[in-house]
Amino acid sequence: GENVEQHPSTLSVQEGDSAVIKCTYSDSASNYFPWYKQELGKGPQLIIDIRSNVGEKKDQRIAVTLNKTAKHFSLHITETQPEDSAVYFCAASHQAGTALIFGKGTTLSVSS
Amino acid sequence: DAGVIQSPRHEVTEMGQEVTLRCKPISGHNSLFWYRQTMMRGLELLIYFNNNVPIDDSGMPEDRFSAKMPNASFSTLKIQPSEPRDSAVYFCASSPGQLHGYTFGSGTRLTVV
To answer: Distance of CA A43 to CAs A8, A10, A12, Å?
Structure first.
């Protein structure tokens, strides 16, 4: 089955800096890669996703890149703000009736 | 839309007792998922349903866990008997279909003492 590895487990940046979180997956059939943000006491919330027919996707300060050959994908947050502080999860699945498998999460702390 | 609704938000129970967690998915979403979150193991898939039918329950830890989806608007996750190691946050999520993001509920924090 699918296995998703996520790094780093914790990340501390200064406000205004960029943050990068990386994930690798094991199942070459996976073709859907979402990212979720979880704030304290809440459920994970989808922030951006990418499908395998696209190499990069951007939404304001957030971007995701995908390298299918290397089986890794990354989340990039630019101009970080204190409200970006949260736990971020990557996930992967493929169309053949499988559910999302999540990475272990990255705790991002943005200090002002 | 009220989103995915889970109840209760918090549950404290004694070891050996039966626990039932409830979930109402978003109307029109035909896939429903139960996940368990712990510090050590992260977000683990327990079971998921497609059109009310269980598709994959390989993540259910043991026979003490069972899940049902009697109709498109309601699902339950039952633990009987409960054990301290079942303490975790249990999330329900729903999705409109394959290759779509999930909407998670707020979770049920279960503590078994």
So the answer is: 21, 19, 22
- pLDDT tens digits along B29-73: 999 999 999 999 999 999 999 999 999 898 998 899 999 999 999
Query: A51 vs B106: CB contact, 8 Å cut-off?
Result: no
Let me know: does A36 contact A89? Beta carbons within 8 Å.
yes
Could you tell me which chain B residue has the CA closest to the CA of A94? B99
Burial B44-81 (b: 16+ CB within 10 A, else e): ebbbbbbeeeeebeebbeeeebebebeebeebebebee
Rg (CA), chain A: 13
| Chain B residue closest in CA terms to A102 | B43
Count how many pairs of residues, chain A against chain B, have C-beta atoms within 8 Å. Answer: 52
CA distance B57 to B67: 9
